[in-house]
Design a protein that fits this description.
- By secondary structure, the protein is of the alpha+beta class.
- It has one domain: Alpha-Beta Plaits, CATH 3.30.70.260.
- The chain is built from four helices and four strands, in the order E-H-H-E-E-H-E-H.
- The chain starts with a strand and ends in a 9-residue tail after the last helix.
Length: about 100
């Protein structure tokens, strides 16, 4: 499964309803699971973003659909990016034709 990091900001509607944020994340997590994905972690933050979540989906299309579903409720704006673990990055480097030197 592919991994994604989403940077989330509350809209005016979302900030007015901030006491519901935990419930909204739980509902979104259930929706993602029904669609075959998984929210690995949801973290609330302060600063540039209000929430960060790490998720896994079978493909980019499923991740995009979940992001649209989340944003369509009107409580948040979402920026999602595909991220890669070590094994995936090794494969990317190999595909680029560059040999990988491992520590012994």
């Amino acid at each position: 499964m592919a991994t994604y990091v989403s940077l989330v900001n509350w809209t005016e509607q979302g900030i007015k309803n901030f006491p519901d944020t935990i419930k909204r994340v739980q509902e979104f997590s259930r929706h993602v699971e029904r669609a075959g994905g998984m929210i690995r972690e949801a973290l609330w933050s302060f600063g540039e973003y209000d929430l960060v979540h790490i998720s896994q989906f079978a493909n980019d299309e499923s991740a995009a659909a979940a992001s649209l579903r989340l944003a369509s409720a009107g409580n948040v704006r979402v920026r999602t990016m595909r991220v890669f673990d070590v094994a995936e990055m090794e494969n990317i480097i190999n595909l680029a034709g560059v040999p990988i030197e491992h520590d012994s």
